[in-house]
Amino acid sequence: MPAKIRLQRHGKKGRPFYHIVVADARAPRDGRFIERLGSYNPNTNPATIDIQLDKSVQWLLNGAQPTDTCRAILSYKGVMMRKHLQDGVAKGAITQEVADQRFAEWMTARDAKVQAKVDGLKASGEQSRKAALQAESKVNSEREAALLRKRSELAAASEAAALEAAREAAGEEVAEEAPVAEEAPVVDEAPAADEAPAADEAPAADEAPAADEAPVVDEAPAADEAPAADEAPAADEAPAEQAPEAAADPE
Fold it and tell me: Which residues are paired to 65 by β-bridges?
């Protein structure tokens, strides 16, 4: 059976990379091989491919058959184009100089396409990165606005709670001091100014008990009755006492 150009798997689970080898078709996939032609890493974008161009063309000219995946890889790297031109040179359709010139032109066009793809991927990556940054900044701004609103609401709530607590404390103080202010006799009832017992009744000046009822002055027992002067028993009754003396004179 002819030799085959195929991939030999390496790498860890989920992150494989491959060796491009020439092996017997009867050999297992990861078994013995005849020659290694290059490597293929599909984990990058675009994929990284290293290939020995001349050896790959020589094996193709010797009759090695590539697998479908290896054919696509060899065509991407220009190995199949080079074999086609070499077949034309072998048949005498074109010269080697023309084949080399056409291959160089083909490689230039292929490199331009690859570079355009790389630039496009880079530009799309930059755009996606900018979009992600804008989205992240938007989310951050919304988050900051939400935090500011929440902080303002919490501050307003705390201020309202503090004001309510202050009002309740003031109400309690007023309630505690209210009985003293209501019962204050000097301020509310003012007994000394309203009733004025000393000025209204004025017992000493209006009634004047000492002057009106003065027993010594009003009754004046010694002066009004004057028992010795009014009755004067000695003076009134004197003629009766002296009568014998008057009668005795004529004698």
Answer: 4
The rounded Cα 45 to chain-centroid distance in angstroms is 43
> What is the three-class DSSP state of 50?
strand
Distant-in-sequence, close-in-space partners of 188: CB < 8 Å, separation ≥ 6:
181, 182
If asked whether residues 109 and 89 sit together in one domain, one would say no
- DSSP letters for 62-93: TT-EE-HHHHHHHHHTTHHHHHHHHHHHHHTS
Report the predicted TM-score, pTM, of the whole model to 2 decimal places: 0.52
The answer as to whether 209 is a domain residue is no
**Judgement on whether residues 111 and 88 belong to the same structural domain of the protein:** no
- pLDDT tens per residue, range 73-89: 999 999 999 999 999 99
Closest to 52 measured CA to CA, from 84, 22, 8:
22
* 74 within 8 A of 56, measured Cβ to Cβ: yes
Backbone angles phi, psi at 24, to 5 degrees: -65, 140
The whole domain housing 81 covers 3-94
Among 42, 63, 94, the domain-final residue is: 94
Contact criterion met (CB below 8 Å) for 99 and 88: yes
Structural domain total, the chain = 2
**Structure confidence by residue, pLDDT tens digits, 201-234:** 444 444 444 444 444 444 444 444 444 444 444 4
For 41, which DSSP code?
E
Classify residue 205 by its DSSP letter. Answer: I
The identity of residue 190, as a single letter, is A
Burial of 71 (0-12, 13-18, 19+ CB in 10 A): middle
Tell me the residue length of the chain.
Answer: 251
